[in-house]
Amino acid sequence: MNAERKAGTSVPAPSDFYGQRILPAVRKLKDLEHLLASSYVWIVLLDSHVSQLMSVAHLVRQHKKQLLVHVDLIHGLKNDDYAIEFLCQSVRPAGIISTRSSAVATAKKHKVFGIQRHFLLDSIALDTTYRLSEKVTPDYIEVMPGVMPHIIAEMRSKLDIPILAGGLIRTNEDVELALGSGAVAVTTSRRELWDAYAPV
């Protein structure tokens, strides 16, 4: 990871998630319990309710894990800069994921690293990704869907920002293609892939 970009951050640089090739994304507390007992350190929280956030974050910290919160999918929390400030100050995740550039920028101001999620539906969306990335400089970019190895390779050649691949990744081959094209990790909610790529 670009050390200069992380300068001044109170959260330790994730060093591309300590070699984790899969970032498991959880929707259910049962899946979270499974991951807390696993060798995974970095965990993505998808669907959640604002009333659960504090207890989930505390539980994750108790197990010496790092939580990445997808702020766009938190029920009961208005998706604005005040909500991001609340998350950073009270929930204290290691990082946040959002499609909103302002959310990523606000998180970075509060020393929480930001992952900007982009849905690359067409060339206009790709051009927008390049433009916003230069303006906001997120710590990571999550590319959706992640089954576009040639686009991931292009983005890696043009941006000095690490790429995550997520969405529609269903098989080991999909994972390997994404990683081989330059993604530093793959986000997925498929438990069979969590088990196949669990850190040793």
UniProtKB/TrEMBL annotation:
Q: Which UniProt keywords apply?
A: Glycerol metabolism, RNA-binding, Transcription, Transcription regulation
The UniProt record lists the keyword Transcription regulation: yes
InterPro entries listed in its UniProt record? Aldolase_TIM, GlpP
**Domain of life here?**
Bacteria
Q: Which Pfam families match?
A: G3P_antiterm
Q: What does this protein do?
A: Regulates expression of the glpD operon. In the presence of glycerol 3-phosphate (G3P) causes antitermination of transcription of glpD at the inverted repeat of the leader region to enhance its transcription. Binds and stabilizes glpD leader mRNA.
Q: What is this protein called?
A: Glycerol uptake operon antiterminator regulatory protein
The species is: Paenibacillus oleatilyticus
